Amino acid sequence: MSEPPQTDVSRPSALPTATLHQRNTASQALIDQNSDEYLDAIEEEWNKKLDAEVDFLVDGMVDIVSLASIGDKDKFRIAQESFQAESRAESMVRATNSLLSITHTLKLLLLLSDEAQIAHRRDVELAHVRQEKNEAQQKVAALLDELFRRPSAGMSTDI
């Protein structure tokens, strides 16, 4: 059986002659992974970052909505809630900028990723579509042959 395809993903590792720090088992396990496992771990890490930022934004919106309650409030309470809303909004802006940065990074990763995989997927899809087209052409040809071979029962051939 052939080995799974390897990618050109860079893996951080110490130089062979480096003696400053000894490798711990976690970094050694990361280096010993095959490409698919490594890419899955990277994907999981990105998903965790995205989930954390989105959760932070949702919690911020919930807090801001809860601060916006209507009722009898004195000036101190209004000022306190205003400060809380502003500080929560600033935190949400930071989270939004982080999401924007993550989006930009993911776009770059997609653009600079392994083009061979994208080309392979395109070629597989193209072959599949061509096969479907050929099958449809054969089916249409068979139906047309069947249609033109049978003389219609209602038409007479006497002239």
From TrEMBL:
One of its GO terms (molecular function) is transcription coregulator activity. It is found in: Nucleus. The keyword Signal does not apply. Keywords: Nucleus, Transcription, Transcription regulation. Signal peptide: none annotated. GO terms for cellular component: mediator complex. Its main location: nucleus. GO terms for biological process: regulation of transcription by RNA polymerase II. InterPro entries: DUF3140, Med22. It comes from the Eukaryota. Belongs to the Mediator complex subunit 22 family. This is Mediator of RNA polymerase II transcription subunit 22. The lineage of its organism: Eukaryota, Fungi, Dikarya, Basidiomycota, Agaricomycotina.
